[in-house]
């Protein structure tokens, strides 16, 4: 697929409407790359003038900060801010709630102030502006449950954007017992993704997967590449791969629209 | 001799309030051991939080059953205190039910009737609370940190309330002239038969005894607050006022780090520059927190405010899956250590003498800190907006930046970020490969 970079744009003297911040998972993780491509297809269908940083993008520093390494976080932040400000970026969209939270909330006091959107908010706006329509027939009748990413939900009080999009897919949205502000974490946040869990009697992602399975879903929808990994692993552990799929909302929309 | 009861009462009142004031000063002193933090912005939102969350109990009722029961005790506590005002005036002036002289008999009866009904309700609810704590097998009351004193403390508070409510009703039941009036006694009238065998003099003696024990009990309870987990009845108000207003996902950026990073990234900085004279006298700021003195005042206020209800712990993903981390224990440990430091200061004439202990390791283990997913469930759950997560993060910062004591896998993750700009070992030049893979 053709994905313009900010450097290309600048060479042509152009400024895109929005920068798509892909994030480390979206760039390197095989599962998350599918989310990235699905979102790009949506952007292309809606004719959004976007660009990515490509090789100039670097870790936001979220994981480093939450692991306690404030030095590394601020070094990453200042490097990224230099690049972003160099390209005069005003508006950013990302599929990763961790990048979303860091760019939106933690960069401003370090000199990087942008209008930052989670992809579910951005797609909502595209629909409101009449630039995108979701086909309600493809996934009609499927049972979908939504797992709230902590850094989207509790972290930034965004509960309705993803649910609004799911409802537009023509599916049945069923809530887990713990949802929205009382949603249970997938177990990946706070840099847990990159280490083994401390001794306990269960993995967090297994507990959350069990809660999701209680709703008897066809699809577990998420809005975060890390949640996606954790829930996908949980489904494998529970040997439910044949019956249940874990999908990002961007993937569901791309699927609905046959992109 | 006629004024002896008045004098005794005045002495008891002075002692009770005096001790309480002394202890409150100690709490202030201990909270002020913390680092400064500015939480005076956006006062409109702060007042709103206080009214909604502390006064209005909006977060309590998210768990409808225990929340509703708590509202009964809360309303009872606040309203019955109007009666305490009358008792105090009576005690000082040697009068009996002095409010009757100022308000109509029917309104007085209405007030006392309200107090009696609330007292009975409070008694019932407190008994339910006791049952929940001791018999109902509710997981959050059975955690390891609730063994011993914390469990007893919780029960003592409930016993206090049961006894105080009973004394109030007995005092009314044995007040013969009040019962003869026949109004304002919707509950106490049913207790009257219990005292049927007593003479008028005997009844008066019981009434006086109940009256005295009731007010003395209140003064003792007031002073027990300082030693108990029950300070939330006062501190919930400042605690909700000063709580964080930023999005919960936003963690603070350490200013001390910003200065150093800016210097490192400044191409004009002279690496061989001699430090400014005077600058080397400054002790470089410690990164993160290993003891209570490294925490900020709001974090310490949080610790005093915590009433150990355990809603945080019951929502914590790490705790739910059997890990050692319990956000409630983080708050309890912080308070225990702060009080230990406070006692140390008292014993050493106003200055802290190194005691070879700290919050980290002696109270909170790295294993607890590393189990946190930073999901904010504990912060969301707290009925009075306590933030255990900020303490966990500050202590992780100390472990990583001062001790280089992160788990090995996290060190690898951080090395990868430094080298490749990603938490995994991929080449930064491959960042756009995803675009060509389909």
Automatic annotation (TrEMBL), chain A:
- Mitochondrion listed as a keyword: no
Is Repressor there in the keyword field? Answer: no
Which keywords annotate this record? 4Fe-4S, Iron, Iron-sulfur, Metal-binding, Oxidoreductase
Q: What is the lineage of its organism?
A: Bacteria, Pseudomonadati, Bacteroidota, Flavobacteriia, Flavobacteriales
Q: Which InterPro entries match?
A: Cys_rich_dom, HdrC_iron-sulfur_subunit
- Where the record annotates domain Cysteine-rich, the positions are 28-103, 144-231
What the entry lists under Pfam families is as follows:
CCG
Name any one GO molecular function.
4 iron, 4 sulfur cluster binding
Name of the protein described by the UniProt record:
Putative iron-sulfur-binding reductase
Q: Which organism is it from?
A: Polaribacter irgensii 23-P
**GO CC list:** plasma membrane
UniProtKB/TrEMBL annotation, chain B:
One cellular component term (GO) for this entry is: plasma membrane
Q: Where is the 4Fe-4S ferredoxin-type domain?
A: 296-328, 361-394
- Record keywords: 4Fe-4S, Iron, Iron-sulfur, Membrane, Metal-binding, Oxidoreductase, Transmembrane, Transmembrane helix
* One Pfam family here: Fer4_9
Transmembrane stretches, start-end = 6-24, 68-89, 109-131, 152-171, 183-203, 210-227
A GO molecular function annotation here is: metal ion binding
* InterPro entries tied to this protein: 4Fe4S_Fe-S-bd (IPR017896), 4Fe4S_Fe_S_CS (IPR017900), HdrC_iron-sulfur_subunit (IPR051460), Helical_ferredxn (IPR009051), NarG-like_sf (IPR036197)
Signal sequence residues = none
What's the protein here called? Iron-sulfur oxidoreductase
State the species of origin: Polaribacter irgensii 23-P
